[in-house]
């Protein structure tokens, strides 16, 4: 082995190309690195889940702002959600009692009492459509006795609210996410909200 070969072996592997580039000014500049897009933490993602939830059920973990639709034993599709403000978080077990496309919306008497200037004008209801706060789809949650809980899993006109505690107790999803869930979930589906 000659001296030049020994010198080449002693140089770090990354040094040789940079030395060559530094010596040849006629070479084009390396392209600038493209910024890496941040992954949306609230985009639908298949994840592992406890295996004791029945396939088909919905599990909401309010403090983490995620809804899980169990698709196989120990597997779920996770969606980002917005939930109720601290004093308005609803927790419990329910079933999907009804499903509606482009639902109408009527604020509850408690909502009207809390903020009459904001909700009073809709006391008789607001028709469904793109400006309706329930968004594109709604799943109505019923208790064990078959009573409407007034809690909905629904779309939103405020997709930037996902990942925050901002609602009056309902569980908000982006419209495209709730439309996907709506197609997968029949009435009677168990829902667990923690």
TrEMBL record:
InterPro entries: LD-transpeptidase (IPR050979), LD_TPept_cat_dom (IPR005490), Transpep_catalytic_dom (IPR038063). Pfam families: YkuD. The active site is at 154 (proton donor/acceptor), 170 (nucleophile). It comes from the Bacteria. One of its GO terms (cellular component) is extracellular region. Gene3D superfamilies: L,D-transpeptidase catalytic domain-like. Residues 57-194 form the L,D-TPase catalytic domain. Keywords: Cell shape, Cell wall biogenesis/degradation, Glycosyltransferase, Hydrolase, Peptidoglycan synthesis, Signal, Transferase. Pathway: Cell wall biogenesis; peptidoglycan biosynthesis. Residues 1-22 form the signal peptide. The keyword Transferase applies. GO terms for molecular function: glycosyltransferase activity; peptidoglycan L,D-transpeptidase activity. GO terms for biological process: cell wall organization; peptidoglycan-protein cross-linking; regulation of cell shape. Belongs to the YkuD family. PANTHER family: L,D-TRANSPEPTIDASE, L,D-TRANSPEPTIDASE ERFK_SRFK-RELATED. This is L,D-transpeptidase family protein.
